[in-house]
Amino acid sequence: MNRPALSLRPLALSLGLMLLAQPALSASRENAQKLLAIQQSTLDAVARGLVENPVRQLLSSAETVLRARVPADKREAAARQIQDAARKYMDDTLPVARRRAADLAQQLLLPQIEQKFSDEEIRQIVVFYESPVAKKMQTVLPDINKVLAERLLSDMRGELQERIKLLDQQMSAALGLNLSPPASAPKP
């Protein structure tokens, strides 16, 4: 039986094309990885917020309880113990949250970046973020935003205090802690 000889040429050509395409994929992945690395401070801020926000709330509540229920001679020691516990929580939990954020960024953000941006767009974004102007922007923006935040707080301090006081009174009344009507509540 005469069988036609198998040509290895198409197979070699296909394998060659696949190998040529491989560096392009890894270059794209490499740029997407660079973009994630550039965004590390944002990932860290997300992790820090996740860990710090509950601590801030607990410390605020603890301060209220300290003033209201702890004898004056024991407040300083209790406050120190609370601060130490909060610091230990932060020291133990923040690194775990940062690592988890980095892992999730690899799992969730990397595919999103590669899906929503072309290779060239990713490259351009990386070039921008690595540029001197982007680095300057990242160092200057916090100061610019601080000016806005300070002015906003200054402009709204009185209004915010009144609104918070009213909210506190309403919440206390709802909990049955203070049955007298709020002093600055609007008349029905």
UniProtKB/TrEMBL annotation:
InterPro entries listed in its UniProt record: DUF2059
Superkingdom as given in the UniProt entry: Bacteria
Pfam families the UniProt entry points to: DUF2059
Domain DUF2059 per the UniProt entry, residue ranges: 107-146
Signal peptide: 1-26
Keywords noted in UniProt: Signal
Record's protein name: DUF2059 domain-containing protein
Native source species: Aquariibacter albus
